[in-house]
């Protein structure tokens, strides 16, 4: 094999996957609807710097992931062409690249706020737990999905911290102390379980694509225990748990969002349908973009979600109040 080129070291950082960090957007929007943070040039700078910070931390995690997974990715029908598999990777360069990306990401996070720095630090540590021995949670059945999908609520809370104040707002339900500048636990769990559903569906599609339990186990150790039925059951569990905590959040925090619930259910159902296809595109965000109608629906869903964060529907509050009388 030939030594990796500079272009391939850059590719290992997976800049094309930065699109996933748009999971920060709902956190920003919800925090804005709660705290009514005034727009200013400084806030715009914080948004850009915050996004860049999370993107760099994500790339640091991707670098260490691809390097440490090279011996496993060679068994995957799609990932066997990755740079780390087909070229000779210099570990000194890899660890330097990881360190530089992580350091810049953390420094940028520091300039946002102490809370944002905390979120980026947790994001980085979770990458180590997921990829590095003796932890390497990606090798452990069910924990692999849960430990990777928890990055979604970390992204949400990072977006939230860009807009949330350092202290609570006086004379409001958020005024008790600094802890009340954190997002509600219900939405965090819903976001986590929603991400777990997406990841479990990806695992299911991978398992079916490899179509050989022995080879699947060589690629991912958790596949030695997983099978199609256990993955399907776990997907059902994650989806139901997500819906349950989403319902709690809607009733307690923003009843207007109940309008989006049937569209939310359709989104999950449509994604599941795509996940059940042979050679399903859910295995990579770049491939999922080929499902144009699904992506259009996702865009319209996000627009509706954004609108409902700021549009009040009084009769829903009346319905919720009077429903307790029956």
Automatic annotation (TrEMBL):
Membrane topology: Multi-pass membrane protein
Keywords (A to Z) from UniProt: Cell membrane, Membrane, Transferase, Transmembrane, Transmembrane helix
One function term, GO molecular function aspect: transferase activity, transferring alkyl or aryl (other than methyl) groups
Name under which the protein is recorded: Prenyltransferase
One Pfam family cited in the UniProt record for this chain: UbiA
UniProt keyword annotation of Membrane present: yes
Gene Ontology terms: cellular component: membrane
Compartments reported by the entry: Membrane
InterPro entries reported for this sequence: UbiA_prenyltransferase (IPR000537), UbiA_sf (IPR044878)
Organism whose genome encodes this protein: Pedobacter paludis
Main location: membrane
Top-rank lineage group of the source organism: Bacteria
Transmembrane intervals: 21-41, 47-64, 85-110, 116-132, 153-170, 182-200, 230-251, 257-274, 294-316
């Amino acid at each position: 094999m030939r030594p990796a080129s500079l272009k391939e070291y850059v590719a290992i950082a997976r800049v094309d996957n930065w699109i996933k960090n748009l999971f920060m957007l709902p956190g920003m929007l919800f925090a804005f609807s709660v705290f009514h943070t005034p727009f200013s040039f400084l806030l715009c700078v914080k948004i850009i710097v915050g996004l860049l910070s999370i993107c760099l931390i994500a790339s640091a995690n991707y670098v260490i992931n691809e390097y440490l997974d090279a011996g496993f990715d060679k068994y995957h029908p799609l990932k066997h062409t990755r740079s780390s598999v087909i070229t000779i990777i210099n570990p000194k360069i890899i660890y330097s690249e990881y360190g530089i990306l992580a350091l810049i990401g953390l420094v940028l996070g520091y300039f946002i706020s102490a809370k944002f720095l905390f979120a980026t630090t947790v994001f980085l540590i979770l990458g180590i737990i997921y990829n590095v021995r003796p932890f390497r949670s990606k090798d452990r059945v069910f924990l692999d999905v849960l430990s990777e999908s928890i990055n979604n609520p970390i992204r949400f809370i990072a977006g939230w911290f860009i807009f949330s104040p350092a202290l609570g707002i006086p004379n409001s339900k958020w005024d008790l102390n600094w802890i009340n500048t954190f997002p509600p636990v219900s939405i965090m769990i819903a976001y986590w379980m929603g991400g777990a559903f997406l990841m479990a569906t990806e695992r299911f599609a991978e398992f079916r694509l490899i179509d050989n339990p022995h080879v699947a186990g060589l690629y991912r150790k958790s596949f030695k225990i997983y099978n199609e039925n256990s993955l399907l059951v776990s997907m059902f569990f994650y989806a139901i748990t997500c819906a349950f905590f989403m319902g709690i959040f809607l009733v307690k925090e923003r009843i207007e969002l109940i309008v989006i619930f049937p569209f939310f259910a359709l989104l999950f159902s449509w994604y599941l349908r795509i996940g059940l296809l042979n050679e399903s595109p859910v295995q990579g965000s770049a491939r999922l973009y080929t499902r144009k109608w699904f992506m259009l629906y996702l865009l319209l869903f996000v627009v509706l979600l954004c609108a409902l964060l700021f549009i009040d529907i009084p009769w829903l509050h009346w319905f919720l109040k009077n429903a307790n009388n029956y």
